[in-house]
Specification:
Number of helices: 11
Distance between the termini: 26 Å
Oligomer: single chain
Number of domains: 1
Largest sheet: 8 strands, parallel, barrel
Structural class: alpha/beta
Bound molecules: manganese (II) ion
Helix content: 40-55%
Strand order of the largest sheet: 1-4-5-6-8-10-11-12
């Protein structure tokens, strides 16, 4: 049985802010990487491009110094002023082209540092009010721009991360299914969906079922771990509100032979940073191991013969242990 690999989006290891407050102190990228190496069981790094890195050579040297591996490069196409109202779906071709160019640069960077793939969450594409955007051109621009970025440097696959809300009130790619629909439309095999546990919950999905949908449609998947109250993307510590969902996601990830990093997309905010990630690591590793111990064959057989009572009993006894 394979062991879980865990990592973290290192932006959460420094100063973060929301509309009301700032949290923690600013730190350098080197300090963030040193910090990752101190978290129990973490070896993976998801780095935001282009804001958290020097050149590829310096970045690689720092990764080696702290014994870390890349889980992914996360390309940010929402921070620049012109992309705050959207990037890939906008009517202005210049704005779209510069966003595509940024994704291509992120792929070049990923290749140079040995990262396995690039992930992109087009958070600013969408709308805040009705009668704001042209749905027809917005969708077609999303398809065209993402296709162009996906086709570039095919050895570095491009992953799309759906999210229902924020920074736009209603994001373009607002569910796993819509992400899959976009990937089907662009017909490029070197693509995948980044399934963020909290985003999936906010879209009123069941993350395990959403993961299965990605694989059954022939695409690759990459997992971000966290939790929330389903109303907003709070980036809480994993399984703090959806324990059974967490176990079920692990069960199906194992069923599909998932062997990428489980990357933590959680924000410590008021909690002690190191202990926050240690607790996240603990519950995520624990959930993974618990899912490995379940009697997989028996569970699948109970599903086949529709033994719902047997399955509920399994959940009570083997998962909740009551
Ligand atoms: Mn995420």
């Amino acid at each position: 049985m394979s062991e879980i690999k865990q990592g973290v989006i290192i932006g959460f290891l420094g100063k973060t802010q929301d509309r009301f407050s700032e949290y923690q102190a600013p730190v350098t990228t080197e300090q963030k990487l040193e910090f990752v190496s101190k978290i129990d069981g973490f070896t993976g790094v998801e780095m935001v491009f282009p804001y958290e890195n020097e050149g590829p050579a310096e970045t690689k040297a720092l990764m080696d110094k702290y014994g870390l591996e890349f889980a992914a490069i996360n390309v940010n196409i929402k921070k620049e002023t012109e992309w705050v109202p959207g990037a890939l779906s906008r009517p202005d071709k210049g704005i779209r082209d510069r966003a595509v160019a940024m994704i291509k640069k992120a792929k070049d960077f990923a290749k140079a540092v040995g990262a396995p793939h690039v992930t992109c969450c087009p958070l600013s594409d969408g709308y805040d009010v009705l009668f704001q955007i042209n749905y027809k051109t917005a969708w077609n621009h999303m398809v065209e721009t993402f296709a162009e970025a996906a086709d570039y440097l095919p050895e570095i696959p491009l992953f799309l991360e759906p999210k229902y809300s924020e920074t736009r009130v209603h994001c373009q790619i607002d569910s796993t299914a819509k992400g899959v629909l976009l990937l089907k439309d662009i017909q490029c095999k070197n693509t995948g969906i980044t399934i963020d546990m909290g985003h999936s919950l906010q879209s009123q999905e069941n993350p395990a079922q959403a993961l299965s949908l990605i694989y059954e449609n022939g695409f690759d998947a990459y997992i971000h771990t966290n939790d929330n109250d389903t109303k907003a993307d709070w980036d809480l510590i994993g399984a703090s509100r959806h324990f059974l969902h967490y176990i079920e996601l692990m069960f199906w990830a194992q069923e599909y032979g998932y062997n990428k990093y489980f990357t933590t997309d959680a924000s410590p905010r008021i909690f002690d940073v190191l202990e926050f990630f240690n607790r996240h690591s603990e519950i995520t590793t624990g959930a993974y191991k618990l899912a490995q111990k379940l009697n997989r064959q028996q569970i699948l057989e109970m599903m086949r013969i529709e033994d719902y009572n047997g399955l509920m009993q399994m959940v009570n006894k083997e998962i909740y242990r009551i």
